[in-house]
Amino acid sequence: MTLSGPRLHLLVVDDEEQILELLDLTLSMQGFHVTAAPSGPAALKQLKSAPVEVIVMDVLMTPWDGFDTVRRMAEQRRADNAADPGAASPLPPVVFLSGLARPSVMPELGDGVLSDYLVKPFRPSQLVEVIERVRMRWEHRHG
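^ that's the sequence the OP posted. Answer follows.
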């Protein structure tokens, strides 16, 4: 079963404009609905304004790196959930992208943050597989 398609909305975050455009185009061509953000602060703002099912996040960015951005997203989600328990929802799963090798131990991202990691360069099909895999794990956990 594939989860890709117009119903799966991705937030794609990268501070390199050409990479962001390439990811947007590639994932849109794969049938995903893509919202692009050029920085961690922009991604945090975007996440508050529209629901997404998966976050695709570059690791090496400024002013916040991808890990710090996800920690801030998780903190904001916890604060939002505390303010309105009836609308409580967990942070969507995250796929980290980096030219660096996967860390042997992932940094602490916050309670319940589900993530995966893909090393650049990668084929579009590999990215789609990781997005679908992390989303299926998230669905299994949160039903």
